[in-house]
Design goal:
This protein is of the alpha+beta class and 330 residues long. It folds into two domains: 160 residues, 2-Layer Sandwich (Beta-Lactamase); 160 residues, Alpha-Beta Plaits, CATH 3.30.70.270. The chain has ten helices and 13 strands. A hairpin with a 2-residue loop joins strand 8 and strand 9. Helix 1 packs parallel to helix 4 and helix 7 runs antiparallel to helix 8. The chain starts with a helix and ends with a strand.
C-alpha cells in the first residue's frame, strides 16, 4: 500500500473510531459505520453480515432493495458472501453478479471476511455501480484493514456500549447530552445530504417551568423534568434523537422528515405531556405544556448552527404566541 493511501486509511480509522462509537444497539452502530465507509470509498451499496450458527445474518445494509431486510439469513457457501465466510479469503469481483433480487447489481464488489481471534465472525460487502471507478487490488488491502477495526468493534461492543452510554447521556433526564446531540446532528445532516432526504430539527421548551422551579423548589422541578423527558422518549419514533439542550430545553432530530410531517409528531408529543399529571410539592398535581420551533434541513440551514438558530427563533416566536404552540421556521 502506498504511503499516501496508508496515511489516509489511518486517518479514516482514527476519525471513525472517534465518531462511530457504540450507541444504543449494534444495528444502529453498524449502520453509522457503513454510512461513513460508503462515503469514504465512494460506493453506493454495502452490507454487514454476522455469523449466526451455520448461517450469516444481515445486520446493516445501504443502497439495497426493500426486500433485503435486517435479520435476513444466507447459508455458508451460499453466494459469494457465504463462500467468503466459509473460506476466509477476501474477494474482488468484476461484472454484474447474478441475483434473484431486484437490487441493482454492482459493476465491481469487495467481499471481506471479518475475523476475530482467527475466527470468522462475519462478512463486509461493498459494491460500486456503473459510473464510478471500479475497486482495485489496493482497495482490497485497505478494506481488509477496515475489517480488522470492525472486528475489534464487534468483539468489544458490550463493554464499549456501557462506557459510551455513560458518556453521551444526560444524568438527570436520561436523554442524550448536548455533546452527543451535535455529533448526531452533523452525522444525520451528512446522511440526509447523501441520500437526498429531508431532516427536521425541533427545539422544545416547557411552558411555566421557571414558575414551577420557584414555587416547588429545584429538587421537585428536577424530578418533573426527568418525568417529562420520559414522556418525550415514549412518544418519539425509534429513529428520532432527543437530547437535553440546556435547562428545560430539549432538542429533537427527526431523520427523513420534512417540517410539515414533523408538526403532527410534535403535536402528539405535546398532547402526551399535557395529559400527564406530574407530582409537585406535597403531592400537589402539576400540569405542563410544551412549545416547539421546527426547522428543516437544508431549506432553513445548511450547517448545524444555522439550523439550530432557525429552530430556536421559531421556538421564541411560539412562546410569544402562547402556551402549547408549534411554529415552523420562516
Amino acid at each position: 500500500m502506498e504511503a499516501v493511501r496508508l496515511h489516509a486509511t489511518l486517518n479514516w480509522l482514527i476519525d471513525t473510531a472517534a465518531d462511530v462509537t457504540p450507541g444504543q444497539d449494534l444495528e444502529a452502530t453498524l449502520e453509522r459505520y457503513l454510512d461513513r465507509l460508503l462515503q469514504w470509498v465512494d460506493a453506493e451499496q454495502g452490507s454487514i453480515l454476522l455469523r449466526d450458527g451455520d448461517a450469516l445474518a444481515l445486520v446493516a445494509a445501504r443502497g439495497l432493495s426493500d426486500e433485503v431486510t435486517p435479520g435476513m439469513r444466507i447459508g455458508l457457501r451460499e453466494g459469494p458472501a457465504g463462500e467468503v465466510a466459509a473460506e476466509g479469503t477476501p474477494r474482488l469481483l468484476y461484472g454484474e453478479l447474478p441475483s434473484p433480487r431486484a437490487t441493482p447489481r454492482p459493476r465491481s464488489a469487495l467481499i471481506i471476511p471479518i475475523r476475530s481471534r482467527e475466527r470468522i465472525i462475519g462478512v463486509l460487502n461493498l459494491g460500486k455501480l456503473s459510473g464510478t471507478r471500479d475497486f482495485t487490488p489496493e482497495d482490497l488491502q485497505v478494506l481488509s484493514v477496515v475489517a480488522a477495526q470492525l472486528a475489534w468493534l464487534l468483539a468489544n461492543f458490550e463493554l464499549m456500549s456501557k462506557m459510551w452510554r455513560l458518556a453521551i447521556t444526560d444524568e438527570l433526564t436520561g436523554l442524550y447530552n448536548r455533546r452527543y446531540f451535535f455529533l448526531r446532528l452533523r452525522e444525520e445532516m451528512q446522511r440526509a445530504l447523501r441520500y437526498d432526504k429531508p431532516l427536521s430539527l425541533v427545539m422544545l421548551d416547557l411552558d411555566g417551568f421557571k414558575e414551577l422551579n420557584r414555587g416547588h423548589g429545584l429538587l421537585v422541578a428536577d424530578e418533573v423534568l426527568a418525568k417529562v423527558a420520559g414522556v418525550i422518549q415514549r412518544n418519539l419514533r425509534a429513529v428520532d434523537v432527543a437530547a437535553r439542550y440546556g435547562g428545560d430545553e430539549v432538542v429533537v432530530i427527526l431523520p427523513e422528515t420534512p417540517a410539515g410531517a414533523a408538526a403532527p409528531i410534535i403535536a402528539r408529543l405535546q398532547r402526551a405531556v399535557a395529559d400527564e399529571t406530574f407530582v409537585g410539592r406535597n403531592g400537589m398535581p402539576v400540569h405542563l405544556s410544551v412549545c416547539a420551533g421546527i426547522a428543516q434541513f437544508p431549506a432553513d440551514g445548511v450547517d448545524p448552527e444555522d439550523l439550530i438558530r432557525k429552530a430556536d427563533a421559531a421556538l421564541i416566536e411560539a412562546k410569544r404566541a402562547g402556551s402549547g404552540r408549534i411554529l415552523l421556521a420562516e
